[in-house]
Amino acid sequence: MWTRTLLTGICAVALSAGLAWAEPVDGEKTYDLLFKTGTLDAIGRDSALVYRREVVNALKPDAAERDTGDIALSFRPDQVEMAHLQFQQGEKHRSLGIFPASVGNPMIMYFYETVVRDMAEAAGGSPFYIRNRVKASLIEPSEVESGEAVIDGKTVATQTIRLRPFEDDPNRKLMQGFGDLELSVTMSDAVPGWYLSLIAEAAPDQGSVVYRSETQFDHLEEAQ
Asked: What pLDDT is attached to residue 77?
């Protein structure tokens, strides 16, 4: 039976302008942070990480309703070295895949793949082209923004990487607003599983949101 260990009061806290800073990093460092290995090593194999995904999709509202729900990462007694992802929406549960736990937290892969799928579904275009552009952005130089978050009343350090895979794409004007897509990943050693939030947003010229997918770490469930 599970008990629910809530990380209450999780919220991003922006540093004041005088204290905020960003460190330029090369493509290899960008990738290593986003796909950090060993992030599941300290998670008990009788525990589960639970994330909340909220989706807004102005082009396909039905898809947003379909894709909003909880995602549970757990381990099975006969496969303790494999991480199982399951989508949960009320009484409906759906397997999302099985991944080697030694590689790291597969939530990052699920995040990017769902963005690729959602964009192709909503705006059209080749999913292979979209995936290739997103994959290329994962190994490009970026900036790591230092920040803070409050977890269980404690202030902890965070790192955020923002990627804009279609910023210089010659086809961006044909992407129905997705040309302005920004991918933002906030990470912290203080958060079980490393990822605090994974956000994808397309808001042309900072106007109305065409698409937003926010996956937030919610809580750790532990067996009694």
From this structure: 86
